[in-house]
Amino acid sequence: MVRQVLIILPLLIAGITGWSQVDFSASIQTNGEVTTDDQIQLTISYNKKGQFSPPAFNDFHANGGRESWSGSHMIVNGKVVRDDRQFIRKYILQPKKKGKLVIEAAKLTVDGKTYLTAPITIDVKKGVKPQYGAGEFDPNAQLIAKMFASKRDIYKGEAITVTYKAYTPFRFRQLINLKIESYKGFSKHSLLSDKIKQYDVKTETIHGRQYQVITLERELLVATNSGEIKLDPFEIEVLLTDGWGFNTAKSKVKSNPITVNVKSLPQTGQPEDFTGAVGQFDITAESSSNLLTEDDDGFDLKVTISGKGNVDFDDPKIELIKEFDAYPPESDENKRISSSGISITKSYNYFTVPLQNGEFELGPFSFSYFDPEVGQYKRASTDPIKVKVDNPKIKAERIAGDKKLDLDPTVKELRFIKTETNLEDKDNFLAGSGKFWLGLGSPVLLFLL
Fold first, then answer.
1. What is the tens place of the pLDDT at every residue in 372-411?
2. Burial (Cβ within 10 Å: 0-12, 13-18, ≥19) of residue 12
3. In 3-state terms, what secondary structure has residue 287?
4. pLDDT of 53-91, one tens digit each?
């Protein structure tokens, strides 16, 4: 019995010591990319009550911050001990501007000791600020549907963000139906995560009247055709209720249409190697080795195009000097979609074979694209790559102005396809000969016999 008490007592002391530690942290909850249109939930939690000081919200409008408590009770040595590890303060933040905004540290003082949360940096993009005309909101309407576009005048290949919202002076109870049209001339990409598609309800004051607002969808549209393209209205049907929840009614409306002017890319100044890329891009190149010796059959030349814009451009034309040749490349593509556009990285890996010894310079390689922000064609270029080839198995010298090489047949190197042949006619040893006719008639003779 004494031994059991001695064992249990240190465990109780360790447990009580663990409860005395102060845990103080801050976290945010977002729905993927954050824009100036979005609201952010900041949660600050701590397990010991003390003197609390909220963060400095210099770049945000902040609401909330009321302290709440959740926890449990434990019985230790016959006494009830309250577990105070779940004090929570929640704030709803609205960014004031775009850019890298910082939520400063919160402060908590417990028993004369001060604790700080880690600052949180959020990359905020520019949102689509709704413009409400004086006659657009009927004060007698139960439900209003609105569609907003970030731009109305763009180039082919450029992207815009379209936001779909619904407003009511009553309360949303249930979404019955939502129909968004498929627009010809655009490729569509949804920007809302599944979580935000649960339709969080917000409050907004418009022309002096308070509305409940839900963001139904936010899409990135990339123009694939030129001309004036009409975005047809979307349709929504909801179940509404009054403030007490006693009276309900169905309401069904259509939104406003939007017309987008999509301009063709200019022909003047278009480079010959232009492959259809629209946006802002860069190009890099690197080799797996800069020194090739007897043990090296070749090396990997990796060319990468990265940037933000459309993704349906053709592969770039990479030309090597005559002392090298390469197999067709292996390609890889990665992309990330956000309201600011499509970030894309395309990589091309060429297995490159040297055809002559010496010191060489590959590149610079270039890539042309159209920048819709300035309305001009631009060109990105790589740095040149220096490669030294010292392979005694390469014994041949080039024929001037030609790519033919007298390569050692024992060396497994990249060969050129022969464009000339020396074919010789051979005498027909069977067709039309006596043996041919004898073989053909033998079955008939055997049948008669």
1. 999 999 999 999 999 999 988 876 544 333 444 444 444 4
2. exposed
3. strand
4. 999 888 888 888 888 876 655 555 566 555 556 788 888
CB atoms within 10 A of CB 439: 11
Q: How far apart are CA 383 and CA 358, in angstroms?
A: 20
Model pTM? 0.63
Helices (H) and strands (E) in the chain, counts: 2, 33
- C-alpha pair distances (Å), 212 with each of 238, 344, 433: 13, 37, 97
Q: How confident is the model at residue 413 (pLDDT cuts 50, 70, 90)?
A: very low
pLDDT tens figures, 315-339? 988 899 999 999 999 999 998 888 7
Structure tokens at 358: 């010496």
DSSP collapsed to 3 states, 350-407: EEEEECCCEEEEECCCEEEEEECCCCEEEEEECCCEEEEECCCCCCCCCCCCCCCCCC
Let me know: does 249 contact 239? Beta carbons within 8 Å: yes
The encoded tokens of residue 32 equal 């993927």
Contact predicate 280/371, CB 8 Å: yes
Backbone angles phi, psi at 2, to 5 degrees: -65, -40
Task: Enumerate the β-bridge partners of residue 447.
Answer: none
Q: pLDDT value at position 137? A: 78
Q: How confident is the model at residue 2 (pLDDT cuts 50, 70, 90)?
A: very low
Identify the burial level of 265 via C-beta atoms within 10 angstroms of its C-beta, where 0-12 means exposed, 13-18 middle and 19 or more buried: middle
Tell me if 289 sits within 8 A of 296, measured CB to CB: yes
Q: Is the pLDDT of residue 307 over 90?
A: yes
**Contact at 8 Å (CB) between 112 and 118?**
no
Q: Can you name the residues that pair with 76 across neighbouring β-strands? A: 79
| Structure tokens given for 76 | 């230790």
pLDDT tens, 101-112?
999 999 999 988
Q: Is the dihedral of CA 121, 122, 125, 127 positive or negative?
A: negative
* Mean pLDDT for the chain overall: 81
Q: Which residues contact 130 (CB under 8 A, 6 or more apart)?
A: 146, 148, 163, 165
User: CA-CA distance, 329 to 316, in Å (whole number)?
Assistant: 11
| Pair of tokens at residue 140 | 């007698």
Q: Which of 227, 221, 223, 224 is nearest to 162 (CA)?
A: 221
Q: What average pLDDT does range 245-274 have in this prediction? A: 91
Q: Is the pLDDT of residue 177 over 60?
A: yes
| 3-state SS assignment for residue 197 | helix
User: What token pair was written down for 31?
Assistant: 């729905």
Coil, helix or strand at residue 436: helix
Q: How far apart are CA 116 and CA 107, in angstroms?
A: 5
